[in-house]
């Protein structure tokens, strides 16, 4: 589920993972054409698994194996930057341990370059990863959540969400 109330997005979902060659997740999104930037503070992510993930994603399609760029907060592995550079391709990541919600994240698309940033305060940003790969002009940008356990729901909250088409 996904709910918006008083500036807070509450998202609940299960899913085996956002990883490998196909993803299982809850995705709350809007279509965007061209360059875009999305920022959010992940205020909480339930600890279903150390690799439960709540973050911002840009996907080429809503198919499970879509190319994507993703930056997320986890309950046990810090902030992670992940990319799948082609449809059905494998996923690569880079993470900074020792960080947890509440934490700020930002995802930027400039042409075919995707860059993920993290911040403790929403003011000072540290680049966590960048990758250049071809993605369609019109994509889906939004809030992504996986419990990392298909049989358990995970809840996450996001505030200070800004991006094209967002409240």
Description of the structure:
With about 170 residues, the protein is mainly β. It has no helices and 15 strands. Strands 1-2-15-6-11-12-13 form a 7-stranded antiparallel sheet, with no helix packed on it. A 6-stranded antiparallel sheet has the order 5-14-7-8-9-10, with no helix packed on it. A hairpin with a 7-residue loop joins β9 (about 80-85) and β10.
How do the helices and strands line up, and which of them pair or pack?
Elements: E1 2-5, E2 8-13, E3 17-19, E4 22-24, E5 26-33, E6 36-45, E7 53-59, E8 68-73, E9 79-84, E10 92-96, E11 103-110, E12 113-119, E13 126-132, E14 138-146, E15 154-162
Antiparallel strand pairs: 1-2, 2-15, 3-4, 5-14, 6-11, 6-15, 7-8, 7-14, 8-9, 9-10, 11-12, 12-13
What class do helices, strands and sheet pairing give?
mainly beta
Percent helix, as a range, is under 10%
Count of helices? 0
Shape: globular
Distance between the termini: 17 Å
Low-pLDDT parts are none
The main pleated sheet reads as: 7 strands, antiparallel
Order of helices and strands: EEEEEEEEEEEEEEE
Could you give the count of β-strands? 15
Q: Whole-number radius of gyration?
A: 14 Å
Question: What fraction of residues sit in β-strands?
Answer: over 45%
Strand order of the largest sheet: 1-2-15-6-11-12-13
Report mean pLDDT, rounded to a whole number: 97
Essential attributes:
seven-stranded antiparallel beta sheet; globular; mainly beta; 167 residues; single chain; 59% strand; six-stranded antiparallel beta sheet
